[in-house]
Amino acid sequence: MSDKNIFQRIIDREIPAKILYEDDQCLAFPDINPQAPTHVLIIPKKAIAAISDLAPGDEMLVGHMFQVIRALANKLGLTGGYRVVANCGPDAGQAVPHLHFHLLGGRAMNWPPG
Ligand code: AMP
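Above: the input record for the complex with adenosine monophosphate. Below: its predicted structure, written as tokens.
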């Protein structure tokens, strides 16, 4: 049994995912348990466990990921708006220890989140 987390295994093509976008820094694929009509995960290829593990020098990577999110939202037709979520650590319910942004759209969202 691999001790890699599930997203590292997707990066390494050890388990399948429908890749919606990929470049040298990140990739995006649908969440397996969607919470909205559009629910896409954007992950860096660099092994970063969570926001709390971002290091000096990761600014360009994170900024790039948000440009990818913006482009994906346009491509996926989220004209009514969308939400970007990053769970960090146990109190936020982070389940996979590899940095990821949830892009959620296609329905009206409630606030505050649970
Ligand atoms: P988080 O709770 O922020 O760590 O979110 C982890 C997300 O990964 C959850 O929304 C899961 O549904 C999703 N997920 C887990 N395994 C897979 C997978 N193999 N492919 C796509 N999404 C997954």
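Notes for the reader.
The mean pLDDT is 97.
The helical segments are 6-11, 59-75.
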